[in-house]
Each structure stands twice: as C-alpha cells, then as structure tokens.
Sequence to fold (429 residues):
Amino acid sequence: MRTTVKKTETEVEISVFVPLEEANEYFKKAAFNLSKEKPIKGFRPGMAPFEVVKNYFGNSAILDEFLNITLKDTFNKAIKKNDFSYIGKPKIDIIKLAQGDDFEYRITYPIFPKFEIGNFENQLKITLPKKPEVTEKEINQEIDYIINSRAKIVKVSRKSKKGDYVNIDFTAKIGGVLIENGYAKNYGFILGKGSFVPGFEEALEEMAANEERRFSLDIPSDYQHKEIAGKRVDFEVKMNAVFERQLPQLTDSFVKSLGNFNSVKELKKSLQKGLLIEKTNEQRNKIREDILTKMRTIFSFSISPLLIEQEALNLLDNFKENIQSGGLLWSDYLKKMETDEKKVFEDLKKEAEKRIKNFLILEKIAKEKNIEADEKEITAKANDILKHYYSINDALQDFQPEELKNRVRQEIIYEKVFNLLEKIVGYEK
Fold:
C-alpha cells in the first residue's frame, strides 16, 4: 500500500494505492469470508475456489466484502501514517475498483485550521447589561399563573362570558371547503385567552349550552397561518357546555397546599429567587453568545466545506426529528413554509459554519491556556447525569461510557474557558 498526500488549509486528501498483488489477497479474503459465513454445498466452510464463490454470491457481493475488509485494514494505516489534527468525519471516494487490477481510493478529511490567538484579551470587549432584577409585577404574574392553574371548574346553566371554560363543536370553511384543522368535537378552552383567530372567541360570548351560531370572520392579511391569512372564514359552532372557573384566594392556607411554603411571604420570596436565577442564566447565555460573536470577528480562519456540510446535515436531521416529533410530516412542513429541503439545508449551512467556528475557537483557547478537566471532575459530573436514569442499562441506551466521559470532559473544559472569557470582559456572576 502506498499513499500520497495533498494538504490545504482546511483539508487533507490522502490517495491510497493498493497494488494488484495486495488487492488479490484481499479478494481471496473476501471470498473466504463469504463462503465461510454461508458454506457452498460440496465445499468445506471457506474452502470453495474463488470463481465458484464469485459465481455463487455474485460479483457485487464479492466487491462489497472486498471494500469492507480492504478499507477497514488500509484506512487506519493511511491515517496513522499521515498524522494530522483531523476533525469531523472523512469522505471516501473510490477511484479504481475491479478484480484483477490495482485498487485506488481517496480519503478527504477535514483538519483543524491553523490560527494564533495572540493577545486576543485586548480586543475582547463587549457591552455588558445591568444585573437582572425581578419586579413585583413579575412575581404577581407567577402567582396569577399558579392560582389559575388550580381553578375549579363548575358547570353552570348561564350564558358564557370571558374567563369561562367552554366546550364546543366547530367547523371552519373557506368557500364551503373545510380548512386544515378546521373541525373539532368537544373542544375545551378558556374563553378570551386568544387561542383562536381574532374575533372568534368574542363571537362565542353570551352563548348558552346547546346553542348554535354561524358567523364569518375576515382574517388579517398578516395572520401567522398563511393558508387562511387575508381570507374570509365561515364558522359553525355549537356550545356543548359552559363552566365557571372558581379561583382560590391567595392565603397562607392555600400556599401551604402548594408544598414547602408556610406563608404567602415565603412563596413570593421563593418565586423571586427562582425568577432571578432564570433571568441570570438567560443573561449569562446571552453574554456568552455575544462573546462568541466577538471572537468570530477577532479570529480569521477558513473552515473545510466538507465539515460545514456534515454539521449542516446533522442540524437538518435534528430539525426534521423535531418537526415530526411535533406531529407534523416533514413534507407538510415544507409545503406550509413554502420552501424545499435544499433551501432549508443551505440556510442551515450558515448556522453550521457559526457553530464550527465557535467549537474551533473554544478548543484553541483551551489548548493554548492549558485548560483541562481532571478525572475527579469528570466522574462527579458523569455521576450527576447518571442519577437521572433508572438504571445503567437505561443510560446505555443513550450513550456508551466512553462517549459520556468525552462529552462531560468537553462540557467541563468549555465551562472553564467561558469562565476565563467572562472574567476578561468583566462579567461578574
């Protein structure tokens, strides 16, 4: 086996040449593996002649097994022989593949671009916001949510009004044709919360149980659902039942029923603390994003197009999974958004490039500043993650031990890098 190397700033191309004599040995091994796994009648396992195996399994099967064992054997040798700072995944292109001839292929591997961090501290300046505060209004909004979430609903015989919980049947049509999600039976919601198109809930006020109404609404042209925006929708609604929502009073007695609180004062203090933590975390994440944005302007380097495509494909797969886990088919989403997968992929490539730059910058700073994670830190954090699983077997369904260890190591190192960067910009927790 011979290799030749072509290196650019962002990628390495390793051409691998396996001469005929070596290739023939791999072909023999391929035939041996196939006939051993599935013996041919009249021959002991693995002992059938090459031509017999080829005729029995077919040429494509021989080539597939040849590629499997040859790449597995020569790939690692080629990579170790040409030691670079590889990142991402390699791309393999077959150049020549035929029995009775030399075998050639090319490995294209993204590499860590070279750039110096220098005295970046002098350039790393961002505008820091004021420390977050929690207002009385925000605390009261949280209390209102708690009170409303514990409301009792009591069926009443009166007509509906804003704030009631109602149960309805409805249809929505345009030009006599039912629109998407334009039909439901026994649909319950709080009247006046704005769950439907503008004007719909107002039209249901003062309706009694079993009453039916027909009305039409002109949907605003800037409405979020494009399929009905700017159109006239005809509704038919039947009020099945009206329920009055009875809200509890904010008293010490009520607060005690919520859990570990003895008074309204304690509840408010706890809510204030929780909201402050939430706001602080949001602010810190925003500051870290601002730091990364600034760092991407400080450091100038190129990224492998192959690496960007790989990351964009990962983002696309995750995006698809999120859309479909929400109950919407990917094809329906594309249709709804009036786009196609190619355009989505091209848009994701921009995000992919940003993420890769962030990763490379954090890795470079960690290396240059000798920032590491020791085994005690890794073990402690890994154990915290494992506590959320019922058993080790459950955890193994999500990741292997070494994978978890590497992930935790990276998280710890990045946290230390961010702590350093926050100190440089003057951010105090």
In short: The chain has twelve helices and nine strands. Residues 373 and 413 are 6 Å apart (CA to CA). The radius of gyration is 32 Å. The chain has a mean pLDDT of 93.
